[in-house]
Structures are given as C-alpha cells and as structure tokens.
Request: fold
Amino acid sequence: MTTQPYYLTTPIYYVNDRPHIGHCYTTLVADVMARFQRLWRGQTQPAPTDQASVFFLTGTDEHADKVVKSAAEHGKGPQEWADINAAEFVKAFASLGIANDDFIRTSEPRHKDKVPGYISRLMASGDIYKGEYTGWYDEGQEAYVPENEARENDYKSKISKKPLVKRTEACYFFRLGKYQQRLHQHIEQNPGFVQPDARRQEVLGRLRPPAELFDIPVSRPVTNDPATQWGVRVPGDEANRVYVWIDALFNYLTVVDTPERRRLWPAAVHLIGKDILWFHAVIWPALLMALNEPLPGTIFGHGWWISEGEKMSKSMGNFIDLEKLHEYAAKFGLDGLRWFLATQGPLSGSDADFSHARFVEVYNTDLANAVGNCVSRVGNMVEKYFGGSLPANETVELVADPAAGATIMQPLATLYDWKRLSQEAVGEVAKNIGADGQQGFDPGAALLAGAKLVRHVDAFIGLTRPFTVAKRTDDQSKRALAAILYQCAETLRVASVILSPALTTKIPQLWQAWGCQPPAGTTLANLCEWGGHHALKPGQKVGKGEILYMRADGA
Ligand code: ME8
Reply:
C-alpha cells in the first residue's frame, strides 16, 4: 500500500465574480483524481487531516485589485464582497459533489499571517531586495502601462489621451534570475515536473539560454487610494504590500505549514489552467528553492474549454456559467455532468468544446446505453431467470447456439478472461492516476477503463446470448445461463468501482441495490479483484433495480 501522502491543489480563484465552467472544471478534475487516490489507498472517505493520506485543497484568491474594483461597483467593501463570492464558490463546488479536504481563503488569518514570515525569510537571505521600479505611469488610471503598450499609444494615456509620465518608485524584487539555471536543470531532468509535455517544452524554451530571466517586482505601493490598501503588507514596511500573485502562490504552503500537516508537503500535483503556467512552473518553484523547501512533484497545466465551437463570451451568449451547468445537472443528472466534464475536457490535448449535441451523445453512449443499459439488462435477467438471486459461476462448456448460428464450444471461462481484463483495468487506473511512482495524470482515462469493462460485458452478452440459452431446459444450458449472468454481474461490480469517482450519485445506488458497497479501508486493487474477496456471492440479491441513466433526447 502506498504511504507517501498525496497532496493535490487547484488554483485559488478570484472572488471578483461568480464561478464558471473553468473554475468548476479544474476543481472537478481534481475531485475525481482525489477520489481515485483515496480509493487506491483504501481511504474511501475524506479522513481527519492528521490521518489523511490524500489531501485535496481548493480556495479563493482575494487580495486582487479587481476584487476591490468590483466590490466598489456593487457598493461593497472588498472583504464583504470577498465573503459573498467565496461563499458562492463553496456552494458551487458542493453542488457539483466536490469533496475537498479544505478550502483556503487568502483573507483568512491562517494564510495572511504566515505570508510575511516567508517574505522575511527571503529578505534575510537576500532573495528579496528593495530596489526601484521605473515605468510609464498613467496618472488618470493610477496604473503603470507596459512599454509596448505605451509605445503603441504614442506614450499617451489610452483613456484620457494625456501624456504618460515616467515614474520611479520603491519596490521589492525577487531574484528570479538567480534561479534560472537550477530551474532549467530541474525541468530538464524531471520530465514529469511540468505536464503535459507541450507545456514543458514551452517553459523550457523560455528558460534555455540565450533566454534570460529577470528579477521580478513582488510588491505594490500602498497610497491613500483605498484600492491600494487591500492586501498583505511587506514586513516592516507599511507603504508596500505583497503583490497578489506572490501572496496567492503561498497558499499552497500556508495551508499545510502547521505541525500536523507539514508531512503533506511537498504537494504531489498543482493542477492549473495553462493561462497561469509561468507563475506555477517558474516563479513558484524559484520561490520554493529560495526558501529551501522541497519542490512539488508535478505542475499540470490543462487547456481551455470553448463553447459551441467558439471562445466563450458573455456577449456572444455562449458563456457556460454555473446556472448553465446546473441546468445540465438537472436534465442529465449530476453524474451526467461530472462524466462529461471529466472525460471530455481539455486536459492534455487542445481545447475542448462544450457543445450540447456532444454532451447528449456522450451521455447516451457512455451512461444510458452502456452503463445504465448493461446494468439493467443483467439485473432484469437475474430477476427473470433466477428470481433476483445471483446464480453461481458454474464451470460449463458453453453449448452451441443453433438459433444464432453460433458454434461456440470453448469452455465459458476462457471465452472472456475476466480476471485478466479486470487486472488490466486496474493497471490502466494506476497508470493514469500516477499511482506507485508513475507520472500519469488523466483521471478521465482512468474512468474509461471502467467503461471499457462494461463494453466487454455487452459484447459478452451479444456473444453468449443468455436470453436464447434461457429457452433451453437441459441442465447444461441452465448451468451456462448461471455462469453467464454471474460473470456479467461480477464484472459490472468491478467496473462500478472504477466508475465511482465520477458517478457519485448512481453508483452508490447500484451498490445499495446489489449489496456490494465497498467496505471502508479497502484498496481499489483489492476491490477490483475479479472473483476475489469482495466478489458478489451466489445467492446475493441482484434484481431489477431502478434504471440508472435514462436515454435522453437531443432537445
Ligand atoms: O488565475 N477553460 O484565478 P481565476 C478551462 N487567482 N479552465 C478555465 C477556463 C476555461 N475557459 N477559464 C478559467 C487566477 N479556467 C488566480 C490563480 S493560483 C495561486 C492563483 C480555470 O479565477 C483554470 O484553472 O482567473 C485557470 O487556471 C483558473 O480557472 C483561473 O481562475
């Protein structure tokens, strides 16, 4: 059994607005992964923190200027506005069945009281130093304008058209440049550190000489403008606050920087969107190097959701917000939504399209026609031919099926090698969840290993035709029918374990109906041992249950 803890994080989200598909997607993928990891380790439920071997963190990033701005637009103070929106994120994630172990808000004392400590350490080591920042300043907007933008606008304000002024102010810098070589080497030598590979190449390209890393500003001035007063102060300097991105990155550490949780560091995986790769794959590891902290195992930058073939935008009317996601959950069930997001998302490849037609197709193909239909076919046959009591896995030669023109004479046991197929499915899961030192991070692919087993059961039914076998009354046929149905049901049980991290509503219902709820503390490999200790027992009630997933029309 794996003992190395698995600490998994999502980005912490800005609270200027409400959650949308992007936030929900990242957090859902992390949830499915955390559930797989718990199952893998035999930790079925989120456990008390001091015992948990899997720890899944999400949260909100609150000290951004845009939070102050949107708060003001809503006639609220930043803390009040952050409270309202952070509560929306908590509620949204709960409504999607997400079981995070903790939720960090950067305005909480447990975070903001620790940040100055890290900054002080970096000042003491000389990695953060006080310097001067010079740039083009738009006095009307009270903001610096990047050199290229200033040039494009003839060094005038885009808004007021007044000339920009060259301004210099005190600023704290982090010696990022000092870490270029170590970072480059670390990413070269650890292919799993930045994933997927396209993202790794992107980062390497920007670290490889002649590319040059410069020191970066890590503070912003505090003035009389209330907008500049929201945030964590630089230790010993009330006139400066820590730049929101630096404040935010530290969340991954503050949450576990307690005596009981220290054992969770370093994080196994920081799951993020590709938009924030540079901060996570370069700046964050450099800060950790400077603090002499061990580095996380993997930074995984997923791609982008688009909608109906176009970039999502509120004005285009194709924006997938939380309400839209809830509409899908209401129509296709929470499992339908979780399944679509987890298996069809833009994880490793290019961007993914949230299209209604595709959603319906995936729901019908995978859930209604495969999982739902197969479970109900098998349950119905056990009900019809054996009164709802699971028959034994008799060893028989399968008789020829003249009705089907088939001449299958192999022993039934070798027709499909369920033990081997189940083991293969477990291997697929291990590979895709990065178990046992592997590097994979693809919970959607792990789920598909469960769906594949269901398709094997369907094919097996097609081949053995139990409904035809049932018409014969000889002893051999009866035993064959028993064996076929036992094998179908037991394989569906194994598949259900692998499907359960996404299908959190209906799989527990199936377990209830079939009396095969996995006992707490059992590992995925043990649960998925076909015919093993947790196998369905002959005589067990495997009757006709409620239909798990109804077929949906395209509307
Ligand atoms: O960047 N498709 O927060 P944020 C997929 N606070 N994922 C998307 C997406 C889309 N169309 N849009 C957003 C921040 N995301 C900072 C992070 S971490 C220390 C600080 C997801 O609220 C994706 O994971 O802008 C992206 O990285 C995140 O939302 C950005 O959320």
The mean pLDDT is 93. The pocket of ME8 is lined by residues 11-14, 22-23, 25-26, 61, 248-249, 272-273, 275-276, 304-305, 312 (CB under 6 Å).
